[in-house]
Specification:
heterodimer; A: 113 residues; mainly beta; four-stranded antiparallel beta sheet; 0% helix; B: 113 residues; 11 strands; globular
Chain lengths: 113, 113
C-alpha cells in the first residue's frame, strides 16, 4: 500500500521566520504530488502541485516545494510566515496511472506573533 | 461561482438509521471523490468516480455506498451507520483528463450515537 508521511504533527514558529513542513512518500513508480491547506472549519485548498518538469514548484501565498525523487520527499517551505498562515497542511500523492489519492496525516502550523 | 456543495453540513443520527450526504459540483468535472477526515489520520479516500456510472473503491469503502447517475452529483450513502463512522466528510471534484487539482466542499460533520 502507498503511504504518505508527514513527520511533524505540529510546527510552532514565530511570525516572519522561515518554515519547512516535511513530507515523505513511499512509491516505486512515478507519482504526482500536492500540498493542500485547510483553514479552520473549511475545506481543503490547493497550495501547489508537482506533475512533471522542474523539481522546484511555486504555489500560492509565497509557498514553494521541492520534489526529491531519490529521497522520495516533497517538503514545503516559506521564507517568511505570517499569522494568516496558521492552518493545517496536508501532503497528498497520486500514483501515475491510478485514480486514488493518498493523504498524509497533516501538519498544524501555528504562527505566533 | 464555481463550487462544490455538500448537505447537510452537520448531522447527528443514531446507529442503524440510513442516511445520505449529498454532493454537487457546478464545474462539469469528471472526477469526484469522498473522503473522511479523522484526527491524526488525515484524509482517507472512501470512493471515487471517474465519470457517470463509473465508481470504484478507495482505501476505506466498508459501510459506504455511492452512485453517480448524473455528472454533477455524487451522493454518499450510509445504509446502517455505526459509531465508528463518526467523522468529518469531504466531497471533492476535479476536471479529469490530466488535471488532478481537487476542489473540496465545505465538509459534513457526522455524529453517530
Amino acid at each position: 500500500a502507498q503511504s504518505v508521511t508527514q513527520l511533524d504533527s505540529q510546527v510552532p514558529v514565530f511570525e516572519e521566520a522561515p518554515v519547512e513542513l516535511r513530507c515523505n512518500y513511499s512509491s516505486s513508480v512515478s507519482v504526482y504530488l500536492f500540498w493542500y491547506v485547510q483553514y479552520p472549519n473549511q475545506g481543503l485548498q490547493l497550495l501547489l502541485k508537482y506533475l512533471s518538469g522542474s523539481t522546484l514548484v511555486k504555489g500560492i501565498n509565497g509557498f514553494e516545494a521541492e520534489f526529491n525523487k531519490s529521497q522520495t520527499s516533497f517538503h514545503l517551505r516559506k521564507p517568511s510566515v505570517h499569522i494568516s498562515d496558521t492552518a493545517e497542511y496536508f501532503c497528498a500523492v497520486k500514483i501515475y496511472n491510478f485514480n486514488k489519492f493518498y493523504f498524509g496525516s497533516g501538519t498544524k502550523l501555528n504562527v505566533k506573533p | 461561482e464555481a463550487q462544490v456543495t455538500q448537505n447537510p453540513r452537520y448531522l447527528i443520527t443514531v446507529t442503524g438509521k440510513k442516511l445520505t450526504v449529498t454532493c454537487s459540483q457546478n464545474m462539469n468535472h469528471e472526477y469526484m471523490s469522498w473522503y473522511r477526515q479523522d484526527p491524526g489520520l488525515g484524509l482517507r479516500q472512501i470512493y471515487y468516480s471517474m465519470n457517470v456510472e463509473v465508481t470504484d473503491k478507495g482505501d476505506v469503502p466498508e459501510g459506504y455506498k455511492v452512485s453517480r447517475k448524473e455528472k454533477r452529483n455524487f451522493p454518499l450513502i450510509l445504509e446502517s451507520p455505526s459509531p465508528n463512522q463518526t467523522s468529518l466528510y469531504f466531497c471533492a471534484s476535479s476536471l479529469g483528463g490530466g488535471s488532478y487539482e481537487q476542489y473540496f466542499g465545505p465538509g459534513t460533520r457526522l455524529t453517530v450515537t
